[in-house]
Amino acid sequence: MARSLYEEMNKKDGKSSTSSKKLYALAFVVIVLVGVVGVFIYGSYSGLISPGAVVINTPDQAADTLSDLGNDISGISDDLEEMENLL
C-alpha cells in the first residue's frame, strides 16, 4: 500500500514538473517577444530603427531617390513583360 501510494505521488510530481516546464517556456517566450517589440518601438521613436524609411534632407537627395524608384519600377515592369512573354 505504501509503495503504490509512493508511486502515485511520483506520477503526480512528474506531471506537475512537466506543466511547470511548459509554464516557464511560455513565460520565456512572452518575455522575449515583449523585449523585441519594446526595442522596435523604442528604436522607432528615437530614430535608431526606421525599417523601410529613407531620410531625405536635400532636394538633390529627393531627386536621386525618385530617380532610383523610377528605375526600380522600370526594371520590375520589364521583368513582368518577360514573364508574360514566356507564358
Describe this protein's structure:
It is a single chain. By secondary structure, the chain is mainly alpha-helical. Helices cover 84% and strands 0% of the residues. The protein contains 2 helices and no strands. The chain has helices at residues 2-46, 59-86.
Concise description?
With 87 residues, the protein is an all-alpha fold. Helices cover 84% and strands 0% of the residues. The radius of gyration is 29 Å and the shape is elongated.
What kind of sheet is the major sheet? none
Portion in strands:
under 5%
List segments where confidence is low: pLDDT < 50 over at least 5 consecutive residues: none
**Overall average residue pLDDT:** 79
Give the end-to-end Cα distance, rounded to a whole number of Å. Answer: 78 Å
Share in helix: over 70%
The computed structural class is mainly alpha
Order of helices and strands: HH
Strands, total number: 0
What's the gyration radius in Å? 29 Å
Shape: elongated
Tally of helical segments? 2
